[in-house]
Amino acid sequence: MRRGLLVALSGLLVLPLGGVATATHGGIHPTFRAEQNFFHCVGDTKVQNLSFAQGQVPSWNTTPPPGSVQAGNGCGYWDPLINNNAPSPVPFYALWRGKSTGNLKNFSVELHRLLPASGATLPNQFVLFVEVDGEERFNGNIVLTPTVSSSNASHKMQFTLQNLGYATEDGDGTQERTITLRLTSFNETQSIWVFDTTEVPAGITFNPPTTQGEVFQAT
Q1: How far apart are CA 125 and CA 214, in angstroms?
Q2: Hey, where are the domains in the chain?
Q3: Which end of the chain is more exposed for a tag (fewer CB within 10 A), N or C?
Q4: pLDDT tens-digit series, residues 16-42
Q5: pTM exceeding the 0.90 threshold for the entire prediction
């Protein structure tokens, strides 16, 4: 009788476990692969405002900057604090557009601005716009605190945008998304945003393991 009771109890334990396993495997289990990317110049001019006016937009990939500014590498955007809503063939702000592949919950951005004349590291206000596959995910004022970079040639600023919510595939995922970043100075100081050199390795990191700089929430 004791042996029969043990067999019966074993059967009761096996059945629920089998049911749980079936239900779990019926859904997706998204994971989030971290990937560091670097901004790169586009076109024949160092002034990326002019490249953009010619229909070319700087982007990013996982390849680090090719070399030093001393060897002729790098470029930048001029952001002179003018009315960016006025019609103009030349945009006076910084803009990058590129791809992200797979599930996406957040990203961090590293920016470098040439040192202003004062060299002060006070918090600065900017206007940030983020679009994913044509959908606006952030559009508003942000405050970033600059620090002098290790090269002493630029102010480094970082921020993280959270709550993007693209957990749509099993595993890391393979869906490709187009992301647009636009940054505009806000009534405080003009900026020259520089990138694509070893001294100023600006870029974007998808799904970073830890947040970087100020943290903002996607809408």
Answers
A1: 12
A2: 28-217
A3: N
A4: 333 333 333 348 999 999 999 999 999
A5: no
